[in-house]
Specification:
alpha/beta; 7-stranded parallel β-sheet; globular; binds uridine-diphosphate-N-acetylglucosamine
């Protein structure tokens, strides 16, 4: 079975490629290298012990994508490639809608043309916006609060409408909570361009001395220690969720929606302290004002994925902190 992985050199995509290959799938990666590096491919080949097909293509270029579908016999598509910076999405809504929606539409048009009907879409917990209560089930209201989240929600609708109209389609919408951690080899991990937006890459860069100070965005939330609570999930667990859902798509048509999270939350301070304890390093931080758009608490109810896919997050917060740090040290030592 051959899986086309768009955005396969990115953070979640690269870890999913490892999971796919170790579960016996063939892979072809499509990536335009706009937010990833070609060296990830070499490191993936080292981890997997084999060469991996790669096509450098921008998904807005329909004809090039069409050629990929001619070249390879594709059974499944896992679509990761998208713009993903929340702050930037507010400043560049047209770029975000154009890129994230048109890429998906091109993928779906190619799939229909080449009779490939099984697709996994990389969605996000941010489609829920600020939840009324936690844990969040898949049935919670969809009301994203930023442009990035709205592109994900519109893509979900495009996929649902396509599946409703073309009955052969099998669609999985995977709503990720907060992926952190890295492959245990330390060879791949999150590699943000410029100043990180997310907590864990900021922590690792402060610990590594690349940045001076982590600002904790608010300590006056209604949470036990006042800092924001999130459902962090090890990226390798998340990657395994994609392999688990392929089996579901193999035998079923229609749309399947799953939260991928651990089902419990950690506060910002808990993450910082776990990181310091596990790695024996200091993280220099200071409390600052809240970041606009942040909610106090966000964590999943992953029971549906547990029950229907037999998938569980296996790694705990210590594993996530240890593996994130191992990757940061590799990236620093090898000037990745
Ligand atoms: C963010 C995005 C979300 C996206 C997710 C991907 C926003 C508003 N939301 O979620 O749409 O799906 O990343 O992982 O950007 N924090 C600090 N200091 C920092 C960075 C973060 O205190 O320098 C805090 C935040 O206030 C939050 C927690 O750490 O409480 C996690 O933040 P982050 O990693 O950015 O993830 P989310 O905000 O949950």
């Amino acid at each position: 079975m051959r899986v086309l992985v768009t955005g396969g050199l990115g953070f979640i995509g690269s870890h999913t490629v490892v999971s796919l290959i170790s579960n016996g799938y063939d892979v072809v990666i499509v990536d335009d290298l706009s937010n990833s590096k070609l060296s990830v491919l070499d490191r993936l080949e080292t981890i997997c012990g084999k060469s991996i097909d790669f096509e450098q293509i921008n998904l807005l270029d329909y004809n090039s994508l069409d050629q990929v579908f001619f070249k390879y016999a594709i059974d499944f598509v896992i679509h990761f490639a998208a713009f993903k910076a929340v702050g930037e999405s507010q400043e560049k809504p047209l770029e975000y809608y154009q890129n994230n929606l048109v890429s998906l539409i091109n993928v779906l048009n190619c799939m229909r043309k080449h009779s490939v009907f099984k697709i996994v879409f990389s969605s996000s917990a941010c489609v829920y916006g600020t939840p009324d209560s936690c844990p969040i089930p898949e049935t919670a209201d969809i009301r994203p609060q930023n442009v990035y989240g709205r592109t994900k929600a519109v893509c979900e609708s495009i996929l649902q409408d396509t599946s409703a109209a073309i009955s052969e389609f099998s669609v999985a919408l995977l709503r990720y909570f907060n992926p952190i951690g890295a492959h245990e080899s330390g060879l791949i991990g999150e590699d943000p361009n410029g100043i990180p937006n997310n907590l864990m890459p900021y922590i690792t860069q402060v610990a590594a001395g690349k940045r001076e100070l982590l600002t904790v965005y608010g300590n006056d939330y209604p949470t036990p220690d006042g800092t924001g609570v999130r459902d962090y999930i090890h990226v390798c667990d998340l990657a395994d969720g994609h392999v688990a859902v392929l089996k579901k798509l193999e035998n079923n048509t229609g749309v399947f929606i799953y939260n991928l999270g651990c089902g419990r939350g950690y506060s910002v301070l808990e993450v910082i302290h776990a990181f310091e304890e596990v790695n024996h390093v200091n993280v220099n931080y200071a409390i600052g004002p809240r970041r606009s758009g942040d909610s106090a608490v966000c964590f999943s109810n992953p029971a549906k994925a547990n029950k229907e896919l037999g998938w569980y997050a296996k790694h705990d917060i210590k594993d996530m902190c240890r593996d994130s740090w191992r990757w940061e040290c590799y990236a620093r030592d090898h000037e990745v």
